[in-house]
Amino acid sequence: MHENYKIIYDYDYSLLKKRMNDYRYSVRSLAESIGITRVSLSNKLNNHLPFSQDEILKIAKLLDINYDQIAHYFFAIVVNKHLQNVNTKNGVNPLESREKNYKL
Q1: Cα 44 to Cα 38: distance, rounded to the nearest angstrom
Q2: Phi, psi angles (nearest 5°) of residue 76
């Protein structure tokens, strides 16, 4: 069964959002500073789209995040681990979807 599924993790961006607030960046102002739209950054912060390496490095520089701390801000796995069937048209079959909630 599992060979037809892929695991999708959600990330906890609460430290990143706090850092944005501490440095007085709104979603709009940070997005403009790294050259993407507000909607794009919002989607990334809400786990709808992934951050690119370039975006992570630009944000780290703007928010004074040391490279050895990037994982704490961008890769804190949270809560939802989804198994999605890769054999369905859009990757999601509600009858076969499995979800577990836990913090790693």
Answers
A1: 10
A2: -80, 105
Answer for the pair 67, 79: CB distance below 8 angstroms, yes or no: no
Backbone angles phi, psi at 92, to 5 degrees: -130, 125
* Residue 91: both structure tokens together: 């990757």
**Residue 89 neighbours by CB distance under 10 Å:** 7
Strand partners, 80: 101
Model confidence pLDDT, tens digit, residues 46-82: 999 999 999 999 999 999 999 999 999 999 988 555 5
**Neighbouring C-beta atoms of residue 76, cutoff 10 Å:** 16
**Whole-angstrom Cα distance, residue 48 to residue 90?**
15
